Amino acid sequence: MNEFINPAALKRKALIVDDEIINRTILGHILSGSYDVTYAENGQEAYDMLTEQSYGFSLILLDLIMPVMDGFTFLEKRKEDEELRRIPVIVMTSEKSAEVKSIRLGASDFITKPFEMPEVIIARCERIVELSENTSIIRSTKNDSMTGLYAKEFFYEYLHQYASLMEGSLDAVVLNIDRFHLINELSGRRAGNRILKLVADLIKEVLLRQDGVACRAEADNFLVCLLHREDYGDVFIRLQEALAERSGSPHIHIRAGIYQNVDREVPGELWFDRAKIACDRIRGDFMRQADFYSESLHTRALFHERLINDVQEAIDKHHLTVFYQPKYKIQGSEPRLSSAEALVRWQHPELGMISPGEFIPLFESNGLIQKLDNFVWNEAALQVRRWKDRFGVAVPVSVNVSRVDIYDPELENKLIGILGAAGLTPDDFMLEITETAYADNGARLVEVVEHMRGQGFKIEMDDFGTGYSSLNMLTSIPIDVLKMDMKFIRNMLRDEKSLRLVELIMDIAKFLDVPVVAEGVEEEAQLNTLRQMGCECIQGYYFSKPVPPEDFEVFIREDVVKGECATA
Ligand code: C2E
Ligand code: CA
Ligand code: CA
Predict the structure, then answer these.
(1) Which strand ranges, in their side-by-side order, compose the sheet holding 89-93?
(2) Is 98's C-beta closer than 6 angstroms to any atom of ligand 1?
(3) Claim: this prediction has a pTM higher than 0.70
């Protein structure tokens, strides 16, 4: 004889809790074919039985109105007990109004009294048991051990079941912590893990409550699927506030992307891709907690996909080109050309001119920026070479170094290689690094910048005033030039406060003993005021927009005539 027990031959245990003997008998009769049935006469008896004896039950069928302890109280007590909570409860009721309350208290389904057809009851019980067992299998073996939410692979498995059980519309939500890597770096992995756990808890408390499924996908990405809500009100603000309060760090910013009324025809993975599009749109926008996915976002995402696909061809076929915008020294008797900034341009054969404001952030987010920047550096080096050969002058060019490039261990070799191939040295390039990159990873940046300066490169801090550098931080960052962001210039002659800010930046530069380049100067009055304040250099439409290299030669010629350009 086979000594192993065949699990299929074992009946699952069901507990019927009802004070009326007639109900217990009828229901017991219906279920006894499929279940090993036990009875309790009221909530208290059931509770004692379940907590004192083993937890071998797969299902509880619960009457609501009973003496000693009624069904609602039983549900409440069950909620407190982690083990008990795992046993699904089907409520038996004759009143519709009791359903909502029971669902809130954690019941899974209903059977109406007087009892319906036996097949219906059995089918309901089976469905609930199956669902609950799948859940607990997932729960016991397939959880993310840190947060207790599902792990990603099993989430999608369970999502499928959840979606097929839920008849109404569903929403998909992606949550992400802004600059999570910084928390890890600054406060240690432990603190990072604590925050992840906290976010998972808050997702359960604030977002899920009774309904929905959630997982931690990777790192600090959380996925949630739940019944559709028209209005999320201040759910995410509350989540953010609770996070600030419980973590004790007010600066952690959590953002959510919501794809409402998901299209059930497309796979679940796509629901979250769409929610993520909305989530990514508010990256770094600390004023906003959540955004919704829409058709127009979808169109934008497709547009971005197109750009990503086309970038290599754009380089090969010269749809990407480099324009140059002159920078002029303004402190002498008349302005003098001092250098140029290399700015990339994309003339797409089908989509027309595409602004770098569109594709630079996109390429920064997926690493393509390195390819693009390499291309620009190379073009710029060849251009400096040509100008040297043609005019006998050195026009140094500022190239933009993206925050992503900073992490490239080959950065120095690449730049030196490009310059060397054109017969140039680090004197011919200046490197513009945006201020916000310093905030991203100060320590790494200082290291790289120090090293590059050691090689002879001059470093310009770009878009100064848009980041969060403290004075303290600035004194420890080695830079050669401050580029004041153009938003300060825009209003400097229109309102007193902007003018004060410009003065303040000039003071900071004086304190740091570095020259200032003012960007976005369009009017003579701005230039004059800046000159009086001691600003050394100006870049802006006042002198010229960024232009193709051929057009830039006009500025070189003019300056050669003045005889002031450094000879090569
Ligand atoms: P940025 O480095 O701050 O570059 C200055 C931007 O201001 C340029 O916009 C330039 O055309 C514009 N600008 C200059 N003078 C004026 C003015 O008087 N008025 C106004 N309204 N605008 C002026 P552009 O070329 O659209 O570039 C936008 C941003 O894209 C750049 O900002 C830079 O961050 C990024 N970028 C451009 N080319 C490259 C590149 O080759 N590599 C990288 N990594 N980033 C680039
Ligand atoms: Ca720049
Ligand atoms: Ca700038």
Answers:
(1) 35-40, 12-17, 57-63, 89-93, 109-112
(2) no
(3) no
